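Researcher: Checking consistency across runs. Here is Antibiotic biosynthesis monooxygenase again:
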Amino acid sequence: MTEISKDFNGQTVICTFEMTPATANELMDALKDAYDNCIRHQPGFIGAGLHMNDAQTRIANYSKWEHRDNYKAMLRTPEMIQRNRHIATLCRGFEPVMYEVMADF
């Protein structure tokens, strides 16, 4: 389980995906497969969660990494480049943003 803590010194990434209900399940399956078979095996990966809204129009992904460079290196692997090309066909767009935890409750 991924824990949220302001004492965390690594990199937090939140990525949102916009899609239609027609592609929601296929996109979720592609993301789960990416985590199961690629992302979680990358150096510096700590944990992640995938969330889908009730309308099946958005997926939010929360991930934690030891360092920002670990996340960036994962994105540059040939496998993730190929996977992200496929993921892009299933959604209107996606935006990963790096964050620092400022408070936890």
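Researcher: Does this match what you'd expect to see?
Model: One thing to look at in this run: The chain has a mean pLDDT of 96.
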